[in-house]
């Protein structure tokens, strides 16, 4: 039995100015998977490929155990998809939205939709164009939650929201989607959002998957290291990602913290990185295989 909600294998896609190379990763069932990468890394393109909105040059995509290319209609019935923007007629009311959208889903649940509209304090008869960005995002969630989906794909759902609205959206995800029977693929460049809710991380950089792993394992494997510059030789420098040399000492990211402690004892300071520190150091650093080890 497939334990992954999404399986992407050896996916390739190329345009005149962009390329995804041999993309392989998984979204495990029952987890929140954070899909991270800087703006322009290719996250939205990869989501469009997953959703069969554009076609890959080669490779395979399975969703909920079925090949997307062969079972698109059946699979999309089971997906709650939330974009960073609400692509609905802004002259519609919430009531009109339901009238137009509900026939698209066999398992549309009118009582569930009404529950979320009330919970999110959305007016039934006001036009969408009068809604704030946060209200539009809540409407997107209400629609996605109302047809008993098994997999939720969120493409930058907190982008453009003020801090209060962002926190509200994250609370909605935590309350409604953190459930062993639901799987979430959450794409964002706002790393603090991922810190709060993700169990699993997929990191895309320059058209390649850098890591695809449980968050707690990554934060155990990679450590921030600080110490005296005089202790470093050229070989040791090769084991530090994004090495920065300062008057006060050196700092960077490493997978070889134990070796440094064995060599230098308390002359080095080892700390657990945040997801943001991990991503920033890998973004800025040299991604050679001796530094990243098995991550590539």
From TrEMBL:
GO molecular function: ATP binding; ATP hydrolysis activity
Keywords from the named record: ATP-binding, Nucleotide-binding, Transport
InterPro entries linked to this entry: AAA+_ATPase, ABC_transporter-like_ATP-bd, ABC_Transporter_VariousFunc, P-loop_NTPase
Domain ABC transporter positions: 3-231
Keyword Transport: yes
SMART domains assigned: AAA (SM00382)
Cited NCBIfam families: PSM_export_PmtA
Protein name as it appears in the record: ABC transporter domain-containing protein
